[in-house]
């Protein structure tokens, strides 16, 4: 029942295997499921159980305890995106950027959200932020190999943007 002991148990379990981690997290759930301080751990359990909406709720509870956090907002956005809830994903990606505009993973998330929404030019704009402000050295080959970008490869605006990459290289 002791949180410290459970924390050590989780650390040991991570050195073993996923089943051991699941068992350790289930113990935390059994004794501390309603404790907002362990809601981050609960989100891991829900992700392992493939319960993304419960994971989102746990992460939002955690945010109420710790305050604004770009990485947690990003994770929530990723969970929403993975479940096709694009507007919610976008809201959390934007929150993440407002909290920490240097957290580059959020721009990747934006690019992928706008790919799903088929808002090609906005997706390209997010990629351009990564290139210009974070030093990403994109190559045309990168986008040819990444299946996630398959939908945008035929778009004229994207083809033009990729041409500028070739010219810079």
Please provide a written account of the structure.
- It is a single chain.
- This protein has 169 residues and is mainly α.
- It has 10 helices and no strands.
- The chain has helices at 3-16, 18-32, 39-48, 52-66, 70-82, 86-99, 105-116, 120-134, 140-145, 156-168.
- α1 (3-16) packs antiparallel against α2 (18-32).
- The longest helix has 15 residues, at 18-32.
Shape: elongated
Mean pLDDT over the full residue set: 87
Secondary structure tally, helices: 10
Quote the beta fraction: under 5%
H-E string: HHHHHHHHHH
Q: Helical content, roughly? A: over 70%
| Rg calculated over all Cα atoms | 19 Å
CA-CA gap between termini: 58 Å
Query: Which secondary-structure class do the elements indicate?
Result: mainly alpha
Q: Major beta sheet, specifics?
A: none
What is the number of E strands?
0
Low-pLDDT runs: none
Summarize the helices and strands and which ones pair or pack.
Blueprint: H1 3-16, H2 18-32, H3 39-48, H4 52-66, H5 70-82, H6 86-99, H7 105-116, H8 120-134, H9 140-145, H10 156-168
Can you give me a brief rundown of this structure?
This protein has 169 residues and is an all-alpha fold.
